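Reopening this one. Same input as before:
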Amino acid sequence: MPRPILATIHTQALRHNLQRVRAAAPDARVWGVVKANAYGHGIERVFEGLRGADGFALLDLHEAERVRALGWRGPILLLEGAFEARDLELCSRLNLWHTVHCNEQIDMLAVHKTHQPHRVFLKMNSGMNRLGFAPQRYRAAWSRLDALPQVDEISLMTHFSDSDGPKGIAAQMKVFEAITHDLPGERTISNSAAALRFGSEPAVRADWVRPGIAVYGSAPDFPDHDTAHWDLQPAMSLASRIIGVQQLAPGDTVGYGSSFTADAPLRIGVVACGYADGYPRHCTTGTPVLVGGVRTRMVGRVSMDMITVDLTPLPDAGMGTEVTLWGRASTGAVLPIDEVARAGGTVGYELMCALALRVPVVVDA
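Same output, byte for byte:
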């Protein structure tokens, strides 16, 4: 039989999470963000769950081609825009909307030959200091675009750096609104955290919101709030089974480096999952895991292909017992991916995106 590890994509959870964002940002249209191969879930696997979105936002042309191949005829937004001039030819052919964040992209548009003017999203660097025009240069960029026959509608865009923390969005909102208050065009400024936390404010939700991580069932401001607080459901579950059992005596150690020592008789289960499957190597003793739907802990180090778990709360667990590394167990119990990520010193985004190719994936309709 195949190795007993499996990732499941939950279509209904995607629909639910999308609706939660809509409820948090009423009247705004919603981009389904599927960059990074839908945050590791697979664009083709999530499409049915997210087809209720008003548009799809992504990074590269290949991803856009995949969404169009699935039959999507609505808006698609390239979040980083064109990387070279010939990208605009495919934007024309696939009817893609695209971000403009630098003068070089305006230069590309100025020499682009097209029969159909482009819808562009002019990005402001309001404090994130990644992509975008500085506030003092934003209106000049807008004027350049507005003068081009290659450009149809200009939408206005920025990205929050601290919508998930105490600093918040007020400073960036002030900058964005001061520069754009009299410019025409639709606006999109809110990511997952801003949409959930501040989406009740019309200026914040604006015309479009861009939820990413929330759609996939991770709390964007964890640990301040968890998925239960936001009523989000895991869109991915990673599960395996116990493939061996060991009985430890006091003083026995577990795994490489003998990093865990039993201080009492202890029964442990060996689970078919390791860092080669995408499970974070930096997780240590105490990382939560569900065995048979019951919460227990990992002990020792993560190996390439195996981890070991404490079976103390599960006297009946043994060979073949289900182990949920994150997501929803067959019993209905949930282990939020954010808790596992925190134990590994990272965030849920990375765990989703790092799921290894060797892990089989199924879609639960």
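So the earlier flakiness isn't reproducible anymore. For the record, The two ends are 25 Å apart (CA to CA).
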